[in-house]
Specification:
75 residues, mainly alpha, 0% strand
Length: 75
């Protein structure tokens, strides 16, 4: 594999350059932390919350709301 000038740069320099180019385009970085859906704790908490909703006296209203804001064609 041929060596290029770009491949000789450190990862830190490549990231810095990329961020500078993106900022020049008027963008800014945003970091978002989301639940890790692969953990047992996530599955356990999701199950707990779904049971709480199912047992709620407003379950039908809540489900109607979710159905109303859900895109039937997520493609």
């Amino acid at each position: 594999m041929p060596t290029t000038a770009n491949s000789k740069r450190s990862s830190r320099d490549k990231v810095r350059s990329y961020r500078e180019r993106m900022r020049a385009r008027g963008l800014r970085p945003v970091q978002v932390w989301v639940p890790d859906t692969r953990t047992a704790n996530f599955a356990k908490e999701a199950h707990r919350q779904s049971l709480a909703v199912a047992k709620s006296p407003r379950e039908q209203e809540d489900q109607a709301f979710i159905d109303g804001i859900t895109d039937p064609d997520p493609a």
